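Researcher: First entry.
Model:
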Amino acid sequence: MKSRLMIGFLALAVLASALAVVFAKHQSRTLFVELNQLHQQRDAMNVEWGQLQLEQSTWATQGRIEKIARQRLHMTGVDFAKVVIIKP
């Protein structure tokens, strides 16, 4: 009687262990897929970041700033003939 009870208990333990292995393997695969998706998302964001930096550097070029200053703010270059230097 004891041996049958022990065999039944061991069979349940083996079954529970097998189910735990299957669950752990499934969870591992699910997490691996999620990790790959996150890597792809990171790579896409890095590409977008590089494009945004390039765009920002284009918008901040000296020629563009000077053009906007002349058109919108009606600024002009310095006329050195009109410059007055004050000495203390």
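Researcher: Second entry.
Model:
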Amino acid sequence: MNNNAKPAPPLPPVATPTLPVRVDSGEILRGASTVEIEHAGQRYLLRVTRENKLILTK
């Protein structure tokens, strides 16, 4: 028997799919039609249009 055989290298980790976080817009807006969002030192404005769509602007 040959005891000098090296073990096989470990397999790379397998990526597991993750589900995106889902947040209801009402939780973000809290009854307002606009909300400021700060991200990476920048401010964004999230607003609801008359057609009840969301627009995010810088």
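Model: Note on the second entry: The beta strands are 34-39, 42-48, 54-57.
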